[in-house]
Design brief:
Helices cover about 65% and strands about 0% of the residues. The protein has seven helices and no strands. It has a domain of about 100 residues. It is an all-alpha fold.
């Protein structure tokens, strides 16, 4: 014979327990009250009153919980609506016209002068992509990954130079690697090789 599964507790049973506990508390609290003459000390509160008080308390608790949930949801929905209606954050600007190759090279030069080799290498990478786009070799697409660019440049005569820039860009984006002056020089030589085939 297999043992059947049974519920250890249920909501109705728990509710009855709360009612009983509330009734006992109420009796203990008001037990010492002096009753008018002529009434026995066995006086009890009618069960409908204790049940009514219990349900009133439970309703108030449920109302408070629903009110808290409403406030939380209102905050969430307001934030969601605000995100839909507001323009991008202050630091994010609308897409601009792509920079020219010369502008990217100039950015790289300025960053290098300031000792910011990370930005200098990134600017050379962006300049190389713009060069590919301007030459009609590989049209620039924002969604294209470094891996896709690596596959596309394999057929080009300066594939090694492009690989150097792309691998350096991967290190910039996907690791905390420090870009040194030597790395920047390597990117500069690779870019010069691309510029003068």
């Amino acid at each position: 014979m297999s043992s059947g599964k049974f519920e250890e507790t249920s909501f109705n049973w728990q509710l009855q327990q709360w009612q009983r506990q509330f009734g006992e508390w109420f009796e203990r609290t008001f037990q010492g009250i002096n009753l008018p003459r002529g009434q026995s000390e066995d006086w009890q509160l009618p069960s409908w009153v204790s049940q009514g008080l219990f349900w009133l308390l439970l309703g108030a608790l449920a109302g408070w919980g629903l009110w808290q949930l409403y406030k939380l949801m209102r905050l969430y929905l307001t934030q969601l609506q605000w995100n839909r209606e507001t323009p991008p954050a202050l630091g994010v600007q609308a897409p601009e016209q792509p920079l020219t190759v010369a502008a990217w090279v100039e950015r790289s030069r300025l960053a290098r002068q300031q000792g910011n080799y990370r930005d200098a290498c990134r600017a050379l990478y962006m300049g190389a992509l713009q060069h590919l786009n301007d030459a009609g070799l590989i049209p620039q697409q924002r969604s294209r990954t470094d891996g896709e660019y690596l596959a596309l440049v394999q057929q080009l005569p300066q594939a090694a130079a492009y690989r150097t820039l792309i691998h350096t860009h991967e290190r910039l984006c996907f690791s905390d690697a420090v870009i040194s002056l030597e790395d920047c020089d390597r990117c500069q030589r690779a870019y010069q090789e691309i510029e003068s085939p």
